[in-house]
Design brief:
The protein is mainly alpha-helical. The protein has eleven helices and four strands. Strands 1-2-4-3 form a four-stranded mixed β-sheet, sandwiched between helices.
């Protein structure tokens, strides 16, 4: 019993180096992406045995090309799309002097270019960053964050968002979205094409057909769960990067504690597609895209 308590104590109170935390979470994210890629390849392999390749694969390739084109356009204009989707307005320097001064100080410390700053009309304490690269990035905070957070707390939140920009998280998440979208497209095309498949075929094809149907149902669910896991890992990395920029985890810890105690309604104007970009889960009741606040606070306290 005593030994178990000693192990728990060591795990709970062992100091964490923020650089190790960043590297560890990046490796875990890469591993999760490999899982998505493996599912995609395996699914295509099974379909190639279960179906006549001709017409099915021509339609599938056309669908993928159009989908990738749409995703690329969305990625290229991701910053503009994100701020417009939540109704955010560009922040004026005269009205939001502290906001500008904090971000300018953090960009000097991190070596990042100055992003465009926006404000979202919401009582929640929240923020997000978007954009295809640091040169085309935007940072948006809610009015609730500007009103309820103290100077060092707001600095921690903004440093977290700049951490997402520095780590190229938007590019990473877009790549995962492409792969997850391809699995969903293949699944839908395969299931729909069953209506046009003739009933004749050998037993081997029948076995692969059953496996293909099972994978078509389960694969989108599995890769979606992996996508959510990647999103959670990127949040931990951004927290660690924020500590790297500020050298003070206390501000971010206090901000997370305030969010935990903040009693507000779930954000209705935020779509589920944009939710993973936010500092904390805007829907409150659904925690799949973000790690538990308690876990983030616990990790930060050990830095």
């Amino acid at each position: 019993m005593k030994r178990g308590l000693d192990i728990y104590y060591k795990m709970e109170y062992t100091r964490i180096d923020f650089n190790d935390q960043i590297s560890r979470n990046k490796l875990k994210s890469v591993f999760l992406m490999v899982i998505v890629f493996t599912v995609l390849v395996l699914f295509g392999y099974v379909i190639s045995f279960a179906f006549e390749p001709g017409f099915f694969f021509i339609i599938m390739i056309i669908s993928i090309v159009f989908s990738l084109g749409y995703i690329w356009m969305s990625f290229y204009n991701s910053g503009k799309i994100a701020v417009k989707s939540v109704g955010a307005k560009k922040a004026s320097r005269e009205k939001f002097k502290d906001y500008y001064s904090l971000v300018e100080g953090l960009t000097l410390a991190s070596g990042l270019p100055m992003p465009k700053l926006y404000v979202m009309d919401s009582n929640q304490i929240n923020a997000f960053a978007a954009g295809r690269d640091p040169q085309n990035a935007v940072v948006c905070v809610t009015k609730g964050a500007l009103e309820k957070l103290e100077h060092r707390e707001l600095e921690g939140v903004l440093a977290h968002e700049l951490g997402h920009i520095a780590n190229y998280d938007i590019r990473y998440i877009t790549l995962v979205t492409v792969m997850v979208g391809m699995v969903a497209i293949i699944s839908q095309m395969f299931l729909r094409s069953l209506w046009f498949r003739s009933g004749d075929g050998d037993n081997k094809n029948g076995i692969f057909l059953v496996i293909g149907i099972v994978m078509a149902i389960l694969a989108p669910i599995v890769v979606h769960l992996v996508q959510m896991a990647i999103s959670r890992k990127r949040e931990f990395s951004a927290d660690a990067t924020a500590v790297k920029f500020t050298r003070y985890p206390g501000g971010l810890i206090k901000a997370l504690e305030k969010i935990k105690l903040d009693v507000v309604q779930p954000e209705k104007k935020v779509s589920k597609a944009v939710a993973p970009l936010f500092f904390s889960n805007p829907f409150k009741g659904l925690a799949s895209t973000h790690p538990p606040l308690e876990k983030r606070i616990s990790v930060l306290k050990r830095m």
